[in-house]
Amino acid sequence: MSRIKDLSNIIDERIEQILFERFARYSKYIIQERALPDVRDGLKPVQRRILYAMYKDKNTHDKPYRKSAKTVGNVIGNYHPHGDASVYEAMVRMSQDWKMREPLIDMHGNNGSMDNDPPAAMRYTEARLSKIAEELLRDIDKYTVEFTFNFDDTEKEPVVLPARFPNILVNGSQGISSGYATDIPPHNLNEVIRATIYRLQHPLCTLDDIMNIIPGPDFPTGGIVQGYEGIRQAYETGRGKIIIRCRYHFDDKKNQIVITELPYDINKANLLKRIEDIRLSKTLDGFIECRDETDREGLRIVIDCKPDANKELIINYLLKNTELKINYNFNMVVIHNKHPKQLGLLNILDAYIDHQKEVVLNRSQYELDKSKKRLHILEGLIKMVSILDDVIKTIRSSKNKQNAKENLMVKYGFSEEQAEAIVTLQLYRLTSTDIYELQEEVRNLEKYIEELQDILNYENKLVEVIIKELEEIREKYASPRKTEIQREVEDIQIEVTEMIKSEEVVLNITKEGYIRTYKPKPNESMLDNTSVTAKDYIIANLLVNTLDKLLLFTNKGNYIYLNVHQIEQVKTPEFKQHINDLVRIDPDEHLIKVMVMPKNLENKYVIMATKQGFIKKTPLDEFPVARNNKTYAALNFKDEQDELLNAYISDNKNREVLIITKKGYMNKYPEEQIPITKLRAAGVKSINLKDDDEVVGFVYFYNVQYDLIIFTNRGNVKRINPSDIEIGARTNRGMMTLKALKKNPHHYIGCVYLPSKEHFIVQKEDNGYITLSNDIEYYSELESNGKLHESFSNSDSLSYVVEITTNATNDFEPKPLTNKNDQKGQTKYEQLELF
User: Fold this and answer.
1) Secondary structure (DSSP) of 146-165
2) What's the confidence (pLDDT) of residue 772?
3) pLDDT recorded at residue 606
4) What's the helix, strand, coil split of the chain in %, to 5?
5) CA distances (Å), 310 to each of 281, 496, 497, 557, in order?
6) Alpha carbons 51 and 47: distance in angstroms, whole number
7) Which of 80, 320, 368, 751 matches a 20 to 30 Å C-alpha distance to 475?
């Protein structure tokens, strides 16, 4: 017989509803019980449980240290049912004087460092409550705060600590919960207590009144805070932003920058590594070494500079590019009335004051009840003295202690508490001296009871008590402010030309995006020091300055800005850096042109031509860049299959342009026929192109002294004087310059327009390429198929030709690089004026 399953206990609900309810409960627990501090004592639950467990175990500041592992075990076993690592981490943080303005735990042993070194294991370190932490727990045994059962109902723990000073402001807090985060900076104890007292005395005071006392945070690591408006906004709304800078000074005798204070919560080791990376990258010229000389005397980071270095420039650059200057964002979210709330400074002070009033009232009620009970007993003892012989006779005649108590209550009217005190009284207390002391104690108790009743009944008396106790703590624990507050935010401006060492270097860039610079050597040709892969080739071989800015174009019509000093300078022939290390380009995208940006952009234009017969002219100053680490579109193609062929810089002097097509058409016309268009426009037609034809060559005739070199697919070459080409119109097809052949006809693959002795690349269809010089001595007829170049055979098939850019200068007037031997036989790189 098969068993029938009982389906009555199966609950059928939608999973989204279940997830919502479960996550809501989880979120509430995380928010209230894990990550956010209570506004009243400034503690998260794990911190509160650690302090209470240590207090209950009498692990106080005046007792010997105790193993941290024992404390962690007590916390986990009695109050906090979570991992021991999280408890120990919270315990360690409360002992770190670079995290806490007033550490709450005194730890003996390795408790970490500003370098983010891990602390020693809990089995090695020892800890006890710090003296000021005991002020948070003071009077906790006098029913001042609410208690609740722990997780297994075997112990009771406080919901909040009495917190006799505003710990939420003094030590701040950081945490992330479900949907909430908090970041409250630490403040100066002296200022916070003074502000609390002022708020107690002037309940209607304004935020500006309080900020005259608390001008801003006071971080344990010191530093300089800038931005009054950010501080005020944070204190008003609970959210705001400030700048924290390091503190430094110059040692002119030793050529050093000495840093003595860091921004809050900065990893010193990572900071030093970042500074060292800047030094190694040679981004910043002038400093030799960065050393950490921190010891028991305090933090000290030393930057050794060159004798002629601009130390002000170096520190400004480091402030701008490292964590020597950081943004700090206030986000003062706390648990208030069992709910997460973002509070301003006045609200936090008010919440703390309300808590203190409740604590003092509860303590006063406890003390009042205790005092009244004691007074009642004293009154009975004094009454007993007046009838002492009768009391003794009654006790001696009683059967036992209980019978004696009953007889005293019946015969003399003593209460049960008074009777209990009498039967337990030691005989020596019946001397005349002790009787006097009892009477004195009664008078003192009556006075104390009257004071307690005043505290409970009168608000001004309650406030006086709170102020007095706050003043005692202030006098006992106050320390000078560590953080300087500056009203304005200093704007750091850095001129790149001042930061980089100016020197000439040779720049090599390949089609596939490999880049490098190196210092030119005597007797070394510009192309001797090249090493590229078999399918790649050099497209730019320039002598540039490290202060130059490059403008690069890709086949997809994008442009890139690149600083020369960003490119790694090498000593070996290999390329060690790819452009993707600096700017991300698509896998099927490659570079086609490299230029140097001029200092003066006035009356400078970029002329671009595409393979499908479009041309455009755009002012150079319309090529904006927001960031140097991305590409920007220079034009929009009308057809996605189109590609940018070439680009030139124009000086707008109405020079001539030439369009060459694959089928052999050449169309030359004045530059003025090209309309000026906005950036990203597609442009206009560059030639009346046939459907089965495409543009393979685009030349801007910036120097009439140069000749045009054209290659065909069969290895033939033509050297042509540009003046032999007829001037036409942009809308024309131009003149045919190839002879028709029935079998294996020629077609153009590209052209170069360079001064003599310059080099270019000829690519074969089998992916091999040859680097040639344009020292072709013979001229060809314009309407001919040219002559087979000596480097090729009749069986070769060529795909395209690319010139190696060498004509880049700061003013963008092309000046090709040529080698010229000086009198000592050494090679010099000379810039030739072309127009």
Assistant:
1) -EEE-TTSSSEEESS---SS
2) 76
3) 93
4) 30, 25, 45
5) 18, 13, 12, 41
6) 6
7) 368
- First-to-final CA distance of the chain: 106
- The domain spans of the chain are 43-162, 247-323, 360-477, 500-803
C-alpha Rg value of the chain to the nearest Å: 43
DSSP three-state, residue 655:
coil
Per-residue pLDDT, 719: 87
Report the 3 state secondary structure along 61-86. CCCCCEEHHHHHHHHHHHCCCCCHHH
* 124 carries an active-site annotation: yes
pLDDT value of residue 704: 66
Question: Thinking of the domain 500-803, which architecture would CATH place it in?
Answer: 6 Propeller (2.120)
What's the rounded Cα separation, in Å, for the pair 512 and 509? Answer: 8
**Which pLDDT belongs to residue 817?**
32
Residue 831 confidence (pLDDT): 31
Distance between CA 186 and CA 216 in Å, rounded?
9
Residue 494 near residue 313, CB atoms below 8 Å: yes
Task: Locate 395 and state its tokens.
Answer: 């006790």
Tokens for 18? 């279940």
Is 712:749 a contact under the CB 8 Å cutoff?
yes
Of 29, 124, 143, 779, which one is the catalytic site residue?
124
Q: Give 535: exposed, middle or buried? Use CB within 10 Å, 0-12, 13-18, 19+.
A: exposed
Per-residue pLDDT tens over the stretch 500-558: 778 888 888 988 999 998 888 766 655 554 566 767 888 888 888 888 889 999 999 99
Task: Give the integer Cα–Cα distance in Å for 551 and 495.
Answer: 20
SS3 category, 174: strand
User: Per-residue DSSP letters for 547-582?
Assistant: T-EEEEEETTSEEEEEEGGGSPB-SSSS--EEGGGT
Ranges of the chain whose pLDDT falls below 50: 1, 529, 809-835
Enter the CATH code of domain 247-323: 3.30.1360.40
Task: Please give the DSSP secondary-structure letter assigned to residue 819.
Answer: E
Instruction: Give the pair of three-digit tokens for residue 618.
Output: 């755009």
- Is the domain covering 360-477 a CATH 3.30.450.40 domain? no
pLDDT of residue 826: 34
Structure-token pair, residue 324: 């020597």
pLDDT per position as a tens digit, 49-77 = 999 999 999 999 999 999 999 999 999 99
Determine the Cα–Cα distance for residues 589 and 567; give it in Å rounded to an integer: 20
